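User: Just a sanity check before I run the rest of the batch. Below are the structure tokens for the first item. I only need the designed sequence back.
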């Protein structure tokens, strides 16, 4: 097992790593829409947070030696399921049409730091 760490994505806000490589698979921790330079949300709206969350995932996957085209499964955590469609629009721009990863999406009571969306991924190297 190998730990992945990059300054191009926010550092962990708890006792966990950005990602772990096990065999030929990468397992990321959930990513909020935080700016890695400031630790603040990229914006107060779900659009800005979803975009930054996915950009953070991309940076972590690239640090691991893979990319968004190798993602096989994601989990999306939403503070409000009413944002499902909005997040889908942004999410779809990060993956190739016809090759979307498997995905689960769940509404949660709260996210760290008051976030609106958090996304984690599993990818192949």
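Assistant: Here's the designed sequence for the first item:
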């Amino acid at each position: 097992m190998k730990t992945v760490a990059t300054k191009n994505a926010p550092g962990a806000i708890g006792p966990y790593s950005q990602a772990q490589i096990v065999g030929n698979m990468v397992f990321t921790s959930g990513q909020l829409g935080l700016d890695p330079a400031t630790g603040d949300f990229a914006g107060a709206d779900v659009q800005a947070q979803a975009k930054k969350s996915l950009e953070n995932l991309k940076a972590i996957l690239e640090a691991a030696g893979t990319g968004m085209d190798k993602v096989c499964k994601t989990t999306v955590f939403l503070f409000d399921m009413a944002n499902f469609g909005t997040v889908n629009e942004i999410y779809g721009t990060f993956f190739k049409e016809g090759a979307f990863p498997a995905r689960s999406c769940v509404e949660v009571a709260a996210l760290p730091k008051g976030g609106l969306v958090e996304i984690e991924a599993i990818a192949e190297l």
